[in-house]
Prior knowledge:
The protein is of the alpha/beta class and 93 residues long. Helix content is 31%, strand content 9%.
Amino acid sequence: MEITRLGFGSWAVSGSGWTFSWGATDDAESIAAIRHALDADVNWIDTAAVYGLGHSEELVGKAIAGLPQADRPCRHPGRSSCPQFRGACTPSR
Length: 93
């Protein structure tokens, strides 16, 4: 797999209510932004369980739901706290 130079960093869409938030966000707009990045051929997403205390991973999971497994843009080591995200991504090797 060739990785694009640009990726999507999901910290900024992780919502408010946690110490390091960037402020309130709209979930529908965040999902639309992730899908827009994918439509622009971005093929990796940076997320972590700490971003929004798992909220970022929930949004990424919703944004990539329905994509064929081969087209899903992330590889994750499986340490996610979000079952929806774990099920949506292919484990890293």
